[in-house]
Amino acid sequence: MAALPDFDIVLFGGSGDLAMRKLLPALYHLFREGMLAPGARIMSSARKNMSLAEYRASARTQCGAFLGQAFDAVKWESFSERLFYFPLDAQDSDSYHSLKAALNEHAERIRVFYFSTPPSLFPVICSNLGRHELITPESRVVLEKPLGHDLKSSCEINDLVGGYFSETQIFRIDHYLGKESVQNLLALRFGNALFEPLWRREWIRDVQITVAEQLGVEGRGEFYDRTGALRDMVQNHLLQLLCIVAMEPPSSIDPNAIRDEKLKVLRSLRPFTAEDVATKSVRGQYRSGAINHAPVGSYTDEPGINAESSTETFVALKAEIDTWRWAGVPFFLRSGKRMPERVAEIIVNFREVPHSIFDLPSNSFRANQLVIRMQPEESMKLFLLAKKPGDTMALEQAHLNLDFAGTSQTRRLDAYERLLMDAIRGNLTLFVRRDEQEAAWTWVEPILSAWSASPERPKLYAAGTWGPAASTVLASRDGLAWNEES
Ligand code: BG6
After folding, report:
1. In a domain, 151, yes or no
2. Separation of 5 CA from ligand 1 center, angstroms?
3. Whose CA is nearest to atom 9 of ligand 1?
4. Which of its termini does the chain have fewer beta carbons within 10 Å around, N or C?
5. For 66-92, what is each residue's pLDDT tens digit?
């Protein structure tokens, strides 16, 4: 990997969960790989009044816990010399002075402002950075989700940030795009001639995208109860994955060429009518149950959750794309908390052969399947039927491992490592453009509105199951079954 240019990264929300679990560990890995130029600085800022030594000690303990075996005390010591701390009240312009002085020691450098604070602080941080003239032509801003609660609030955030940074300086992060197998899917689709002729309605029966977590709301109760699974996962991560599967081949790897094609997919999604919401969407909420044989409580018993809450912790949708390529191919999307397994995968189900000459029991595997996994491990497999060794002409399911990277010794990058490097280098390919984000909100809004207008509550499902039975019914209306049920 080519080393990164000199940069300063400022982490707003630098003592928060994301910084400790993802951002600092990602920068530590890049440091260990020799990617950080000798002068690169990581400047964390947060409200808490701590000395630099206290911040470094706290980061060591917290990141150490998340890094596990990758933590090396000696390497961490040298890494932490790059780490600086600026106690700062984002709303108080006067508290930016020491950050300003430090940044201006290298005014010409690439500056990355990483906003991992609640979005309500984005406006005031932007205006304070502007007031102190800290936004240089070499600056970029990375925006963490949630970017708004609906189309209107997302437009407001975009207008506001857009008043200080140009669109080419704005990096809206969706960490699913940084996952290795998502990029491998791009390579598979557009680096090979083999799949393109098959990648259409004539050969693909349905696509299923599942992001299931075993975790509950993990101390984020208040945030989650205002948000729900549709906003937290589908509006961003699942729709971005759908775009990668469904987009037309872009004319180049240029960020806008790719983002233009993703935008066309989002704009071709068939809007949900009120009737569609009733028949093509399912919302669920977990009640008590068991995960890995251990009992877990219900959603409404979690801290920060309203006992009467009708927030969904599970969503299943049938999406349809109105284009020649995809007409009639259902894209089933599903995401939930407290599912039996942690799994994130895209399944492309191909059609069966037009006429089978082999005797196959009706319930056996009959059609090819491409499985792209992001969780728990990253992989890509193509399932086929092959002859079973032996004297009879019996077939069995076999798979080709298309994940060639898995056989190399190169360490896999975490999504945040890759996306941080891209932001530092100024490469927008894996970041979401404003119009994409707004098109995604436009598509989910009718579902959100119909749900909030409906007296019906989300359907309950036991923790540790695959969601309400209605989700099975959703797929079976098309004569299909979710992958774990097939
Ligand atoms: C985040 C959501 O964007 O993604 C969380 O806010 C969710 O609720 C997380 O747990 C899942 O990410 P990953 O990479 O662990 O699948």
Report:
1. no
2. 30
3. 233
4. N
5. 999 999 999 999 999 999 999 999 999
Short-list 380, 379, 384, CA closest to 369: 384
Active site residue 399: no
**Is the same domain home to 131 and 194?**
no
Supply the DSSP symbol for 293: T
In a domain, 468, yes or no: yes
DSSP 8-class letter at 215 = -
pTM above 0.85, yes or no: yes
Amino acid letter for position 72: D
Distance CA 430, CA 447 (A): 27
The amino acid that residue 439 corresponds to is A
Strands in 83-87's sheet, in edge-to-edge order, are: 83-87, 41-46, 7-12, 110-115, 139-143, 170-172
* Number of residues in the chain: 486
Same domain, 277 and 329: yes
Residues with CB under 6 Å of ligand 1 are: 145, 175, 213, 232, 344, 375
Query: Distance between CA atoms of 291 and 46, rounded to whole angstroms?
Result: 36
Residue nearest to atom 4 of ligand 1 (CA): 233
Give the pLDDT confidence of 295-335 residue by residue, as tens digits: 999 999 999 999 999 999 999 999 999 999 999 999 999 99
Domain assignment of residue 104, given as a range: 7-144
Please identify which of the residues 97, 106, 132, 237 carries the catalytic annotation: 237
Q: What atom in ligand 1 is closest to the CA of residue 344?
A: 16
**Domain total in the chain:** 2
Question: Do the Cβ atoms of 224 and 217 come closer than 8 Å?
Answer: yes
For residue 241, the CA-to-ligand 1 centroid distance in Å is 14
Report how far ligand 1's centroid is from the alpha carbon of 121 (Å).
Answer: 21
- Looking at the structure, tell me whether residues 32 and 120 fall in a common domain: yes
461-478 pLDDT tens trace: 999 999 999 999 999 999
DSSP state of 89: -
Q: What is the pLDDT of residue 1?
A: 76
